[in-house]
Automatic annotation (TrEMBL):
The keyword Acyltransferase applies. Pfam families: Acetyltransf_1. Residues 1-93 are annotated as: Disordered. Residues 109-272 form the N-acetyltransferase domain. One of its GO terms (molecular function) is acyltransferase activity, transferring groups other than amino-acyl groups. It comes from Exophiala dermatitidis (Black yeast-like fungus). InterPro entries: Acyl_CoA_acyltransferase, GNAT_dom, N-term/lysine_N-AcTrnsfr. Keywords: Acyltransferase, Transferase. This is N-acetyltransferase domain-containing protein. The lineage of its organism: Eukaryota, Fungi, Dikarya, Ascomycota, Pezizomycotina. GO terms for biological process: mitotic sister chromatid cohesion.
Length: 274
């Protein structure tokens, strides 16, 4: 089953932070109708052939020759915020993976790791925003797979999930059978990124992405890039990524079966060794 990253195309947000604060916190996630729709990711057979990956590895290898560091590769992600380019957040001092990120400009909203209690609401909001239907395991494995757990976050407003991001770590090489620790450079791939429409334009998707990029996995020398897929006609999303350092790498023709035209751009951001 193909996987999808949200915000492949979306509308301009119309809800302000003040309006959100006046809303009842305990609203039903299933009642919101987000306008963003996620797109499938590149099949695993195509991932190793993405142009520029080898160049990125060579660039990182040259860099580590001077610094003595090892390389890893990262993938790009899809984001939903259009109206907010600059975001601020406060990360509570906590050495555990369950650190909480508060959003100062939106009291009541915070970002944290995904817990079992969040899964039902995440399933509902995903089903309303993505054309792809996921099996139960896609959601529950977010908790059971350690690397995916570390690279995934949920946005809570009050106690309700209103958005989330799910990522995985993949090898840059075609040797997928070997453990990641033995495969050399790795890349981060965003499998799903969703926000309910009233919460767009508030910087929440940017903070979700930043939370992934600040993770120990993303900061590792062996993680070299992060990438996503965007529908070819979604100029707003393509512009959003461009403003955040992503570059168009390849156009995959007839990638989406339900859209016309069906092409998808691979957008990628190289990650610094730190």
């Amino acid at each position: 089953m193909p996987q999808a990253s949200l915000l492949s195309y979306f509308s301009k947000p119309t809800t302000s932070a003040t309006e959100l604060q006046r809303r009842k916190v305990g609203q039903s996630v299933g009642d919101d109708k987000p306008v963003s729709i996620g797109m499938p990711t590149v099949p695993s057979t195509q991932q190793a052939d993405i142009p520029g990956i080898a160049e990125g590895i060579n660039h990182r290898s040259a860099k580590q020759a001077a610094t003595g560091r090892t390389s890893t590769e990262k993938r790009d992600t899809n984001l939903e915020d259009q109206g907010t380019n600059e975001t601020s957040f406060e990360e509570l001092p906590d050495q555990s993976l369950s650190r909480i990120i508060h959003v100062p400009h939106l009291p009541g909203a915070f970002i944290t790791t995904i817990q079992k209690a969040h899964i039902p609401a995440i399933q509902r909001l995903t089903s309303t925003t993505l054309p792809v239907r996921y099996g139960e395991n896609f959601f529950t494995s977010t908790l059971s797979e350690p690397v995916v757990f570390q690279l995934s976050r949920v946005v809570l407003y009050g106690s309700d999930p209103v958005g989330w991001i799910r990522c995985r770590l993949e090898p840059c090489s075609a040797n997928h059978s070997a453990p990641l620790s033995e495969q050399g450079p790795s890349q981060i791939y965003i499998q799903a990124l969703a926000l309910l429409s009233p919460y767009r334009g508030l910087g929440l998707a940017t903070i979700l992405l930043d939370a992934v990029l600040r993770s120990p996995i993303a900061q590792a020398d062996s993680t070299v890039c992060i990438y996503a897929h965007v529908w070819e006609k979604n100029e707003d999303a393509l512009d959003w990524y461009a403003k955040r350092g992503f570059k168009r790498v390849m156009l995959l023709e007839r990638y989406y079966k339900r859209l016309r035209p069906g092409g998808a751009w691979i957008v990628r951001k190289e990650l610094d060794a730190g």
